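Second opinion, please. Pick holes in both lines of this record:
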Amino acid sequence: MHNRSGPGRVSGTLRNNLEPAGRNRFINRDDPLYYEKILRYVDPHSYEAHYEVGQAYKQKGENNKALYHLRKSAAAGSPYAARAREALKELEEANESSPPDSVPERKRMLPVLPLAVGAMFLCLLLFLLLASYQPGVRSVVSRFVMEPVGMSVVYEAGERPFYLYFDPQRPTREIEQVLFDQALQLGKQYPEDRIILHGVYAAGEEDMRVRPMSDRSIADRAFVIAHYHAGSDSHVHIRFVHPDYGEAQAAAQPDLHIATNLIRTALEQFHQDHGHYPQQLQELADSYPHNYLSFIPKPLHGRAERTDREHATGPDWLYQPSLTNLEEVLQPYSQAQIPYHPMEVLVTTSSHTLRVVNGPFLLQQSQVGLGADHRTPEGIFKIDERVWEPNGSQPGVYGTAALGFGPYAVHGTNELASIGANQSQGCVRVADADMAKIYPLLPKGSVIRIAADEGASFQQKIAVNSPLWSERLSFEDEIAQGQIFAWLQ
């Protein structure tokens, strides 16, 4: 039998506990990560959410993170300010009150010998420091002059943003080298923190002194960003960005746009299932039932500006699973800043048409068979099952492959007479040849929209033939051996 029960739609009882969190996303108030998701998806400035998340970190003993969120909640005008300040006071007192060893009331006489040994050790340490001094260090450190800015800004613990100005005419290779050198220097000063170094075009004379970022609007003007965390990564990741990048620019490089969002769609669903992103991208393309997608695509365009070279040798993707914003978690090593759109299936029942789309792009269009007596449900669903050559009550009833959503599925069929007709019990039937093309383009978490007519989301798509892979794929590890499925045929 099919191993997932329950309809594709959300039940009435569960819906009462759900709150909308943007496009096609809901948050359950019973979710232990509810307030973290409020900050991530709904309102990053929510005083209530910052207070609750801060209290949670406080209970876990993660005081730095607790301080960050409680300070956000204690801001002027916050209805949680009083409670947040009280919690901050408790945290600060706890940090200051480290219990000393019990000492008798009468004064202890310190032994002379240990004191002398300690003094000798300090002298030796001072001598070694002076002996190892290098004049070149002074010239580097002197460049990090902390200029007065007249304000106090608190950043999240573990993150240190900086910026410097570049001449717009400076060659790309030289910019990379400067960022690489400066990131390494900052990493030595702050080995436990993530260094984020922003390059901004100079309006006047070039000034490459590194400054701590006191105004977050500077980051919006950056044309290049370098990431470096000395404690966990030996690479300096340098990414050139286009702040004005949008859908029009995306049309010039559809392969990169689609490949990026194919992986992001799977990442988003993985995070919803597990509460965290996978350590390695390859975990998404595991064998059934952990096959969130069928392959990890490589960006075939936009690679001329890759900056891995000797600075950051490694994969085609800049993958940072410790971040929260999905567009920052996965980015291509290129100048393109790709907006996130989940992979989608658009089914129009009036014309028996299925389209696979991503943002402005149309990847595949096919005729389909639908349910008799309007049994194919209309609405918005998500793919929760991906199976190659699924077994049913009869051999081959689900054809080449199936993409399940609750009790229904988009699946293959060799009964070509049913294509364009209403004969199924509710599933969407696709000719096997078309299903073989559709299946690898739709990860778990892909959105399925079924409607009688073509709305705005169904129209104005740019048809592309996107060669996301260069060799024939094998789907043998996506076969559910010995399992019988029972989607409504």
